[in-house]
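Async update (no meeting this week)

Hi team, since we skipped the sync, here's where things stand on the single-chain job. The sequence we agreed to prioritize is pasted below, unchanged from the tracker. I ran it this morning and attached the output directly underneath so nobody has to dig for it. Comments welcome in thread, and please keep replies under the output.
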Amino acid sequence: MTSALQILRLDIGLPLDSGAIFSPLEIGYETWGELNAAKSNAVLICHALTGDQFVAGPNPVTGQPAWWANLVGPGQIIDTNRYFVICSNVLGGCMGTSGPASLGPDGQPYGLSFPVITIADMVRAQAALIDHLGIERLFAVIGGSMGGMQVLEWIASRPDRVGAAMPIASAARHSAQNIAFHEVGRQAVMADPDWQGGAYQIKGTKPVKGLSVARMAAHITYLSDAALHRKFGRRLQDRNEVAFGFDADFQIESYLRYQGSRFVDRFDANSYLYITRAMDYFDLAAGFNGRLSDAFTAFKGRACVVSFSSDWHYPPADSRHITRAMIGAGVEVSAFEVETDKGHDAFLLDEPQFHEAMAGFLAASAADQGL
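Output:
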């Protein structure tokens, strides 16, 4: 499937949780398939921290392959012959949607003058896109990791606009451990002299080293110890014995350095700061007097909460907490914990049990909604 960079410009004032009003708003997005006459077959896919809108086709800017091509496309589980699939770059991102790298009214990149955002703000921007497309109610909203947070925000703040919800490998609030890892990453970026107080685009520099280290630290949280051992163990990289130095002796070191160097070519450093901060601020229950179940009482659709046994970034306990709250709110919810040693990133990989669960949930939801 081919991709094109679609950008919608809306001359609206988008209210943000910080109290700021952001305008104008640009949204980078992609759609796949056809919207039916009743506009009842739309599926919104929400991407994770370092993802983008190119869920089913290659990114035309970076050349990177689609990140969910094994699930989205003609004849796939999220079948674009049946569903009208929408995926937008999140607010604060760097792939067409307004963010710190976008040009402000003065013609210069916003940098740190871009307002601090939240997951709820990201969903407000998505809702503006859905309104523009003329869709009143989404058949389903699906997302993993940070995308799962957006799914939860959708059914909490716009329950009548969602028929089915599938948060995957996610949480209703960010843990102290995850905030800590994000802070390490942000400090790595800001400690890089080339960050220039966030004005690196104007100064003609780029905090490559800092962003690379941030990516390396975060990437460790996406994998399990078992997966790291299976893939790398203590095997050496291109040598038979240790070099007694600080080059990449071990394969895992070389792998992390590769992940870091690849990341800086496709992601904006300030976007990384803003998006990780939005995730840290996420605490769905806080807006409902501390009762997570109250966040779901108005949602009358069905939900499926998916977790992965070896995920220590968003462990299964986080998903069980969501499921119990939904049950307490009277939501028709199913929960599925996939046994795997692939860690958090399992939702992006070939996991037959997960794929079967998604297929079953979408089939049941389609029958329920008469699609």
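Quick observations from my side:
Residues 139 and 366 are 8 Å apart (CA to CA).
The first helix runs from residue 119 to 132.
Reply here if anything looks off.
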